[in-house]
Amino acid sequence: MNTSIPSGVWRLQLGKATVLLHRRTWLMTLLMLITLLLLFVLSVSIGSADMSMREVIATLGGQGSKLHEIMVYKIRLPRVTGVVVAGLAMGMAGCLIQTLVRNRLATPDMVGVNEGASLAVIVFALYLTLGSWPWWASPLGAALAAVALFVLCRRPGEQGYLFIIIGIAISELFNAVGEFAMSTQPLTHLGSVYLWTMGHFAHVSYQTTQPITLILLALCPLMALINRPLALLRFGDATARNLGVNVPLVQLGILGLAILVASLGTAIGGPVIFVAMAAPILASWLTRDNLAPIWLAALCGAVMLMGSDILVRVLAQPNEIPTGIMTRILGGFLLLFLLIKDRQWSD
Amino acid sequence: MTVLQVRNLQFGYHQKPVLHDVSFSLPRGKLIGIVGPNGSGKSTLLKLLAGQLPLQQGEVDIQGQALASFSTKALARQLAFLPQRPVMAEGIRVEQLVQYGRHPHQGWFNQWSAEDARQVARARDIMQLEPLWQRIASSLSGGQAQRAWLGMILAQNTDLILLDEPTSALDIGLQTEVMESIRHITTENRTVLIVIHDLGMAARYCDELIALDEGRVAAMGPAREVITKALVDRLYNTNVDILAAPDDGAPVIVPRRRTS
């Protein structure tokens, strides 16, 4: 049997540098990119006024009518880009935390990171009205939740279920405080904040999406760097260390990245359940192994959130219901499925 | 030069001492077994030597250089460590598992070299993994999985190999198979240090034994000299008979009764 190069990879050679590209992973990345593009155009074409996908493409190419330009650039594109960026961030964050804790149920929306992020945003939006959406508050709240989580549960890689159960408690606590904060305000004052807490993308503006996109882009090199040690962490701390991974440093890096990315994902359209959990599962299913890279999980996240967003808009027409309602329904089924599957394993 | 030198090693978890003043050195190309009752500090000693636990007191030199002076990655090129119950990532093929053994020798722009290919093929052939090469590693039986793990360790291509109870969950046939594979590794002039419970297996396959008793070295030397009735009786608080195997006289331990 030939071992001159690993099976299922392309080898790129540039002078002395060799880089391996896993064939299936890259084909699936391409597939998800195309899916995302198609959904993007479809999503822009859906709305109260009819517009065909062809007209959307023409408008995006600068060939559309004045009316279509206003519809696309002013009304629909802010929402759709917000959904894409939030989905990417949620997919990334889910992949990072699931690997760190070595449990599929451990996602930012389960362990309180998203609730911490939302609480901070709610508090700033309600009590310190600054005019613009306080998206930048979200990492503060998420970090607070993460610190609480790690003080109460020291070794996330060794005690997966304890980590999740403590996380659920923290997440409930933050949720309750958030609801308390909202209940002190008159109902008319709440409006968009309340909708946002259910995961609503209708009022997303570029002022929120733009800086978040830039931060995520800046984090990309770090993600690429962490991808290889991340794959080794799946063999447990001892084996990862044996293979030369500085385990505490990498874990800290993953944790920091995950909190930042998860909170930024939440800041755009509010806390959304399901995407962070399902995206890495879809990614590893697509690559047929559990070592799917972060970027593929991110793309899967964007496709799933976009799909859910399209679904609620089509189903609820002409009303507006929050996207988070749809993901919560899908997430409930997924959670049940995973728990039942897990129980079969432990029998 | 010795591959590994340990001087006055002491260690404790939360004030509770586990190892007291352990000193020894390992010669090149030998299979050395660490034996002793449960809780005598065998696994702790191995983890310390592997850099998996921080040193508290005493010195450990790898190839004449202080253990603490190696980065995690540089240490991984000097020694390979297999924990007692390693976690198998789901969905990994045996081929991928063995290839991960090359990680300490790779970098972001050096993801696969001719040397990587050579060492992976070598590991595969020594551990006879060819028929399992495309199998999903988490679906292998105990003996097969252990061989796959040893394949990963061999691909690491280190002079020193530390294995924590590599045979403890296997039946007698698979124990023999794994011990023969481990023996084979030492013919490449590599040093292998294993923690092992079965004294008969230890005496038959190991060149030398280190017997630990409550964190102290109780005896050290050629395997058949270390395994004596007096030592085994004392270490395990059990009255035993030691017989000689018919073909080569290797000690066979038959427990009679617990003494305390």
From TrEMBL, chain A:
Domain of life of the native organism: Bacteria
Keyword Cell division found: no
Protein name: Iron ABC transporter permease
Signal peptide: none
Organism of provenance: Halopseudomonas bauzanensis
Membrane topology: Multi-pass membrane protein
Location(s) in or outside the cell: Cell membrane
Main localization of the protein described in the UniProt heading: membrane
TrEMBL record, chain B:
Cellular compartment(s): Cell membrane
SMART domains according to UniProt: AAA (SM00382)
GO MF term set: ATP binding; ATP hydrolysis activity
The keyword Transport appears for this protein: yes
Keywords: ATP-binding, Cell membrane, Ion transport, Iron, Iron transport, Membrane, Nucleotide-binding, Transport
Gene Ontology biological-process annotations: iron ion transport
Membrane-related topology note: Peripheral membrane protein
CC annotations in GO: plasma membrane
Residues annotated as domain ABC transporter: 4-239
Family in the record: Belongs to the ABC transporter superfamily.
PANTHER family the record matches: IRON(3+)-HYDROXAMATE IMPORT ATP-BINDING PROTEIN FHUC
Protein's name in the database: ABC transporter ATP-binding protein
